[in-house]
């Protein structure tokens, strides 16, 4: 169901931002040049500055999907990742609770919460790896057989797939803190603490086995500017009155309620873990899916622990047991995936694309014109169009900025905003960066101002974008 829902949301996912374009462009560069750049090759503002490629492996994977089936392949890959996340989350919930109904309902809420950040980007892989990582930490906590090598092995891939690898260490810290509490109360074994410690040390070593070594840590921890964070919806605190945030609010409320209900029996590690990710989710909207993934198995366990105390509950829950693992249950999802791949492969062979960048959101027609009428010199561009412009125009054209705002830093992003809003010393800034032409939204303050300037001429205009060139 999650797989199909993601496919149905493909067009919408491609309309939210153009960061995918940057990922595909870098993935293409790596595949063609057999090299992983550690310095900026995309902008004329920070050319050759250090730009750690902490997502290079996922960028290659997404570009391979793009090469095979175009943007249809990218959406298909994203849908598969989301389906895998929901599938594993249900399995983990059921393993903890042994209740089909509770697991289904909690995962339904968790799926709704994660959908707030469904995008065809590398963080989809973090969703998957976070679920697997916590499942293995739980095995370690409960004394089940698991090799310590599993953690550095996962981290080796995670640190090269997405910057979300840092959440692996945050979850490990919560489990270790829970063990310290248990040790202080003589309720935890020294061996478990040693295992957590070794898993952390080995994973830390694995996290720096990247093309740019420890600089991936610097890049991930560098995004602290309140100016930048407050100008991107996904890095702002969630608006709890927004209907799309409702599943998260319900999950959070249920977690608080059943925390107090299970206060005497709840594992301290679980309390630390939920508290940690609840704070992260309340700080940034994009962390809501991570809270949902962390919360679902724990909440399933807590709800079932109290529900089982009701005499009628077990009889009621048993009615749903046969729905958990029907005979040959794998046939339906496998068939759906095969049919979906076949459909997109057929469309691709016929030269048709189901999914495309939305021309009402991105400058599709303007870039069509630019490909026929290339312009020389430095470009100024709208921030959210950066990835799309790289996808279509790089390497002939370098962007002013793209949506990886943490790389460009607060000073440059302040200059960008001043120029786009045509405020204060915007003319001086255009001179400073030697801007020769601009591709910007048709209704932006800068577009309105440049039309009145004598030394700029309008080369192209449509309802979405306008292209100016300095005379």
Draw up the topology in text.
Elements: H1 2-8, H2 10-13, H3 19-33, H4 56-97, H5 100-114, H6 123-141, H7 150-161, H8 166-184, H9 190-207, H10 215-221, H11 226-229, H12 246-261, H13 268-283, H14 288-307, H15 311-318, H16 321-324, H17 331-349, H18 364-372, E1 378-381, H19 386-393, H20 405-420, H21 426-432, E2 435-441, H22 445-450, E3 456-461, E4 465-470
Parallel strand pairs: 1-2
Antiparallel strand pairs: 2-4, 3-4
Helix pairs in contact: 1-4, 3-4, 3-19, 4-5, 4-6, 4-14, 4-17, 5-12, 5-14, 6-7, 6-8, 6-14, 7-9, 8-9, 8-13, 12-14, 13-14, 20-21
Could you estimate the helical fraction of the residues in percent? Answer: 55-70%
Q: What is the C-alpha radius of gyration, as a whole number of Å?
A: 25 Å
**Strand content range:** under 5%
Q: Uncertain runs with pLDDT below 50, 5 residues or more?
A: none
**Largest sheet, spatial ordering of strands:** 1-2-4-3
Gross geometry: globular
Largest sheet: 4 strands, mixed
